[in-house]
Design brief:
The complex is a heterodimer of chains A (150) and B (501). By secondary structure, chain A is mainly alpha-helical. Helices cover 65% and strands 0% of the residues of chain A. Chain A folds into two domains: 73 residues; 77 residues, no CATH class. Chain B is built from 20 helices and two strands. The N and C termini of chain B lie far apart (67 Å). The chains are: A mainly alpha (150), B mainly alpha (501).
Chain lengths: 150, 501
Amino acid sequence: MKTKDIVCGLCIVGLSALLYTQTTSSAEPVFADEIDPMQYPRYLIYLLGIMGIALAGKGLVASGGNANADIPIFTRHTVGVMAVLVLYAALFVTLGFFVTSVATCFAIALIMGYRKLPLLAGASLLSIVLIWLMYLYILRIPLPAGSLFG
Amino acid sequence: MDMILAAFQEVLSPIPLIMNLIGVMIGMIIGALPGLGSVVAISICLPFTFGMQPLQAMALLLGVYCGSNCGGSIAAVLINTPGTPQAAATSIDGYPMARMGKGGEAIGWALASSIFGGLFSCIVLVFAAPTVASFALRFGPLETFGLILMGLTCISSVSGKNQLKGLIAGVLGLLLACVGMSPFTPDARFTFGLYALDGGMDTVAIIVGVFAISEVIDRSERIFHEKQGTVLNVKNLCMPALSQYKGRIWNLVKSSIIGTIVGILPGTGATTAAFVAYGEAQRSSPRRDKFGTGEPDSIIAAESANNAVTGGALVPSLALGIPGDPVTAIMLATFILHGITPRVRLMVDNPSVVYGIFVALAVANVLMWPCCSVTTRIFNYLLKTPEPILMGLIAVLCVLGSYGARGNVNDVAVTVGAGIFAYLLRKCGFPMPPVVIGLVLGQQFEMSIGQMILYKGDMPWLEYILNSPIATCLLLVTVFIILVPIVRRALSARKEEKAAS
């Protein structure tokens, strides 16, 4: 029995059910030759659900158990980086590109075990300034300044 | 022939040549930055062309076009982050090669294949533009459906031993492509009430998340379990020797043909070409078992096909005035701005301009070699940065790239969300390339199905399919591609059984 496959299969089935609920609210086609916009995704969802069941079933009958002693999915490092990235996306507009980018660069390196703090701070600051200059003057793509910078 | 020689003389004169070189260099650097592809690169250079002579402007933009197509593969190989969507197939084997310490070789294979693919499509352009343009007009929804279906079959070939998980990942990609407005009716799908998702999710934002952000999350833990010194190091670009092409030439030619044909068809593009060629190479290569572990055959297929698209895409643009993708649409606008009106008689009425464009494209392909060498050196300095700092920078560059592509802040959330979701899928053993294949081909696939249903009317399906020889051929080839591995596996299983008994 492969627990990981069973869990994955059940998650896929759950996801299919969740997505299916999104296809039930649509209005019927108005014109005779109009295509139902939910028909194609619905078939994909059925297929996904069936394959999810197959994966769970395969996990149930598979022999050998969970042989892989790979790195776990959630560790304090991976969760830390995920949290930093989510915060980066959430605060990107509010705090602006500069502050969030320097903080993200610094935090990810710190989580990954880099401990030369002055060097890290300098490298983060300098590289973000270079990226900012490149976006502003070469690529001419304005980046969010954030409320801190007006 | 005189026309071609005259065009060479003009393009190789100092100013157009310098413009071409600058274009390739700019394109390559922007293409190598995650998320910023050909459209951004050409848009940046467009305003500078207004004061130029037509040929100089064309040389600059064609250089940017070629350079950005090739530049995406440098980032794909070295940091597993395709700079452009069309380089996604390159990272499948390019990155494993780089991790084996063969990054320079992987880039060399990618560059040599890109140059070959680009030059091949130029030659096709010169000799067959009007003919192939009329062929492209015969591609309706059914033919497009056949082609996309053929592209989707490579989901199976990139899934390796995890066929079921690969198929699930492919369907997830197809579902991701459904998010947003339906292509036929004003109905929003899978938006969960969020208006920000009504316009759909940007493909670039998802691809950057799936490949790069998930890699950053994964490395954050893996770095503590690996020995020091696994950081990539590419001393120099290492071009493959001619002897190394033994047994690979047909793959190169075939992928270039695929790229050129796909490029000619409006609405398909380099990413489709790369995956169709990858799938075909995976099916026919004698080294197919090594795909995914650092096999140059897959890089050859993906890169020659995606760069052959550049020439192919110019065929309908120049001969018919039909842009195949956003990049050729911008190019078309530039042609018109400079007084070149694309139409069927352009080749007859204004051959010097047309041949000038073809030759500038060919020269741009050759100039990719020195430019790629310089870009690789720049990346080499970047790779000397300690890995934790490099990973932080990659994360920032990816988020900025996805934001910069459309200037939409929602794309930042999409990139991070896609990255976390992709990380979870990766850890559960789901391969990532099928997600991207499904995502890239999904919209065109649904569109072609809907158009087919509308065009077919009351005609029986079989009659409708048999009415089109091109579609019939494409569907038969697709069936063949699906059946061959199954039969091959059954035969080898029987052989093993016999040997055991």
